[in-house]
């Protein structure tokens, strides 16, 4: 079997799920939560700008602290937020050329997975709408019907994406032809995901990934995009 693995933020869609969640929370009485979320993570931005932190290490704490935005919310409140983010914030920013690639893989009967640091409930809504095989995202803890604020490991970001995809495939006993498979991503933090297949595609890559892709003779897919 052939697989096709898609990053989501910046690849299939230009919108960023974290920003969408922050916007929703701020508009629903959580402005101070959002302000604290930005403040607590701001030092990582400067560390990355100074070259003291890798892109992967930069992204991880932002995802780890997402749960704090919805701490104490009921599952029903969370469901409303996740659906708004998926349908109103993310889906309007679809990149048609990349969505078309995904649909081609589905039409050919390929195993198709969305692999993203995005919180799983939102990712699942996007995946169901696209008709993919499954999604691999980041989970948030629920106890007694409410979100605890804790993001559960493993965080599906950076090099962890490769491991989680391999574990997903192995757990289901799928005989995947890795050399014939495809992966699509936009960031250097996803290089391991791209390197695990025979057909990596750098989508609107950041400067580091663009250089790496050119050196490796990978396909580079450039689209017209409006970033949200």
Characterise the protein shown here.
With 228 residues, the protein is α/β, with parallel strands linked by helices. It has one domain (3-221): Rossmann fold, CATH 3.40.50.1000. Helices cover 46% and strands 18% of the residues. The chain is built from nine helices and seven strands, in the order E-H-H-H-H-H-E-H-E-E-H-E-H-E-H-E.
Q: Can you tell me the CATH class?
A: Alpha Beta
What is the chain-wise order of helices and strands? Answer: EHHHHHEHEEHEHEHE
- If you consult CATH, what is the topology? Rossmann fold
Taken as a percent bin, the fraction of beta residues is 15-25%
List the helices and strands and how they pair.
Elements: E1 3-6, H1 17-27, H2 31-49, H3 55-64, H4 75-90, H5 96-107, E2 111-119, H6 120-130, E3 134-143, E4 146-152, H7 160-171, E5 182-185, H8 191-195, E6 199-203, H9 207-216, E7 219-221
Parallel strand pairs: 1-2, 1-5, 2-3, 5-6, 6-7
Antiparallel strand pairs: 3-4
Helix pairs in contact: 1-2, 1-4, 2-3, 4-6
